[in-house]
Specification:
The chain is α/β, with parallel strands linked by helices and 689 residues long. The protein contains 20 helices and 28 strands. Strand 15 and strand 16 form a beta hairpin. InterPro entries: PP_kinase, PP_kinase_C_1, PP_kinase_middle, PP_kinase_middle_dom_sf, PPK_C_dom2, PPK_N_dom, PPK_N_dom_sf.
């Protein structure tokens, strides 16, 4: 088998993940408004994919240098242009499926619940006056109609990700003219509630209210048609940060330019006349590859806003937040950790314990120092406020803020400035390197006056908002084997002068890749000696060809390799002679699976790690990631239970075949719904039931 056939293309594998999201929207066992959310998630995901990944491939196509394309071909067995064409083909098919689900499934099921979402049907008489009133009182002042055919050589600016109408007009003397009109979804709710009628709830998109009133905007024309369009622009920040210089200034400058990026996708209503499409391509200097046909409505991530008049009836029954008695029964988080390591599972257990940790640290007179790494900070960050309080109370606080976290740069910069004003020492991004670790270190004086360090090791961001929907773990520990090495991480982030050694933590840039390879080699050796070999990996993304090759080697030696990979997965499982001992599962459910777990059987002496690192080149070689061992036997049992339940899931898990098709698991075994069943198990463990 050629090397290029051993790895599935990264972009197509991600599209396979987004197809799995779309499958959830079509699943009749999922409550109706949860399915609508999955449509919104699919749309939002795809939008970002075009803004970042497709934009990157387009730039390679445009450069078209033989050297670059040769390297690309060697890696992917396709030219950049061929990959781009395949992406557009797959996306087109998925968009067709998206439209079918919305039209043929979601809209009719809403109607069964007496919820009418106006789409392609005339507004009933009872709603014409309220819709017209909303147009004139709310919408009209935001509208900016432009007659394009009168601009000559001028090119009007289209906002990134905003939606517009491209309008065909006929003047009084019979001439055809074209116009464009903004749809102000950033200023107004996308969906408007109309008066209830005959027992039905009615909602309408502001697109359709505007469409109904175009004659008011163009009084001297006959409106022949209005077609929705949207432009995605390249959203990757072009920052040369390999060398010294004011990185903060560079980031701020590039954020300002983000909305001026080159087009990565021009989405248009497929009913648009060819003449109008060609006019728009010429007017906005669009290439054939830039234009993508779509439906009548764009920006379907706005479906998150669709009102639900029946609330809980059409949504998931919320899971109770499980209390952690080990923490509730202690006078402080610190005293609980003094008795042993503490593990938390979010969102099954409350993130309030993390907030409590930082608030206690801010107020405890014995706490002398706090260090933390921030990757994605919540817009209203209670943790940041706690650190500001700590600084105000005279504690030494140091925070590393990653200002290159895509789409969170501005928010991170804003919070960094606030913390700096409060006297917190802020360390900004390291040139050429992202810090993705989710760790904190708190130093506290004990009764004897000695300094004791408490470490926080997480798989998810210090972000109380995402903690509500991301499934993650966090470890609180004062184990000196871990806290001493965590202090080395912070020392390196501060100066980058001394290269640290790590024996217990796995840290990208230093020992992570070599240690993982050694652990795989040990499983291979054990099998060769007639012993059992078993590896379980739970990841967000698996892309690094070096690690994939090691897993292939393990499979060929007879090691059982079980993978749970949510999104990008470039390994090809189940191929005889290459990967027949490898299985890959993907779980998509109410919570986004975000934690990373690494299990090695190790001849019965289980080795288990968790952390922030996926097995992608960027995580293993171009970032600072911290992966930490689970040493406490009871906590090991918790994580092994989580992995066991996820490997048995036959409700939300899909197998990925060698071509990355999502194959639903259909067997006669008792139903196992991983997220629900782990919640039940965790609840019983806490209550002793």
């Amino acid at each position: 088998m050629k090397d290029t056939e051993k790895y599935y293309d990264r972009e197509l594998s991600w599209l396979s993940f987004n197809k799995r999201v779309l499958m959830e929207a079509a699943d009749e066992s999922v409550p109706l408004y949860e399915r609508i959310k999955f449509l919104a998630i699919y749309s939002s995901n795809l939008d970002e994919f075009f803004r970042v990944r497709v934009a990157s491939i387009r730039s390679i196509v445009d450069i078209d240098k033989k050297k670059i394309n040769k390297k690309f071909n060697k890696k992917y067995n396709n030219s950049p242009k061929e990959i781009l064409e395949k992406i557009l083909e797959v996306v087109h098919n998925q968009q067709e499926e998206f439209g079918r689900i919305k039209r043929e499934v979601i809209i009719p099921e809403l109607k069964k619940e007496k919820i009418v979402f106006y789409r392609d049907e005339p507004i009933i008489e009872a709603h014409k006056a309220p819709a017209a009133h909303y147009f004139k009182s709310k919408i009209l002042s935001y509208l900016q109609p432009v007659i394009l055919t009168r601009l000559n050589s001028q090119t009007p600016y289209l906002d990134n990700r905003a939606i517009y109408f491209a309008i065909v007009l006929e003047s009084e003397d019979g001439e055809i003219e074209y116009a464009h009109l903004n749809i102000p979804t950033n200023d107004l709710p996308r969906f408007v509630e109309l008066p209830k009628h005959d027992g039905y709830y009615y909602y309408i998109a502001i697109d359709d209210i505007i469409r109904e009133n175009l004659g008011f905007l163009f009084p001297n024309y006959k409106v022949l048609g209005a077609y929705t369009v949207k432009l995605n622009r390249d959203a990757d920040l072009n920052i040369d940060d390999e060398y010294s210089g004011n990185l903060v200034k560079k980031i701020r400058k590039q954020i300002e330019k983000r909305n001026l990026g080159v087009p990565s996708r021009f989405l248009y209503d497929s009913d648009m006349p060819d003449e109008l499409l060609q006019f728009l391509k010429d007017k906005f200097d669009l290439k054939d590859d830039d234009v993508v046909p779509g439906g009548k409505y764009h920006n379907m991530h706005d479906l998150f806003q669709l009102p639900n008049p029946l609330k809980s009836k059409l949504e998931n029954e919320p899971l109770t937040t499980i209390r952690k008695q080990q923490l509730d029964n202690s006078k402080s988080i610190f005293s609980a950790v003094d008795d042993g390591d503490v593990m938390l599972h979010f969102p099954y257990q409350s993130y309030d314990y993390v907030l409590r940790l930082f608030n206690e640290a801010a107020l405890d007179p014995d706490v002398t120092e706090i260090k933390a790494t921030f990757y994605r900070i919540a817009a209203n960050s209670f943790i940041s406020n706690a650190l500001i309080s700590a600084a105000n109370n005279g504690k030494k606080v140091t925070v590393f803020v990653e200002i290159k976290a895509r789409f969170d740069e501005q928010n991170n910069l804003s919070w960094a400035a606030k913390m700096e004003e409060a006297g917190i020492t802020i360390i900004y991004s390291i040139p050429g390197l992202k810090v993705h670790a989710k760790v904190a270190l708190i130093t506290k004086k004990n009764k004897e006056g000695d300094s004791v360090r408490y470490g926080y090791f997480g798989t998810g961001n210090f972000n109380e908002k995402t903690a509500e929907i991301y499934a993650d773990e966090a470890l609180f520990s004062k184990n000196e084997l871990l806290t001493q090495e965590l202090d080395k991480v912070f020392s390196y982030l501060k100066s980058q002068e001394e290269i640290p050694e790590f024996n217990h933590l796995l840290v990208s840039q230093f020992n992570i890749a070599d240690r993982f390879k050694a652990l795989i080699d040990q499983e291979i050796q054990n099998v060769k000696e007639g012993k059992k070999g078993h590896i379980i990996l739970k990841l967000n993304n698996l892309q690094d060809d070096i690690m994939i090759d090691k897993l292939y080697e393990a499979s060929q030696a007879g090691v059982k390799v079980e993978l749970i990979v949510r999104a990008i997965c470039c390994i090809r499982a189940g191929i005889p002679g290459l990967s027949e001992n490898i299985t890959v599962r993907r779980i998509v459910d109410r919570y986004l699976e975000h934690s990373r777990c690494f299990y090695f059987y190790n001849n019965g002496e289980d080795i288990l790690f968790q952390g922030s690192a996926d097995w992608m080149k960027r995580n293993l070689y171009r970032r600072i990631e911290v992966v930490f061992p689970i040493l406490d036997p009871n906590l090991k049992a918790e994580i092994m239970q989580l992995l066991d339940i996820q490997l048995k899931d036959n409700v939300k898990a899909c197998y990925l075949d060698k071509d990355l098709n999502n194959i639903r698991i259909q067997d006669d075994k008792p139903k196992v719904h991983a997220q629900i069943d782990f919640h039940k198990w965790l609840e019983a463990r806490q209550t002793g039931v």
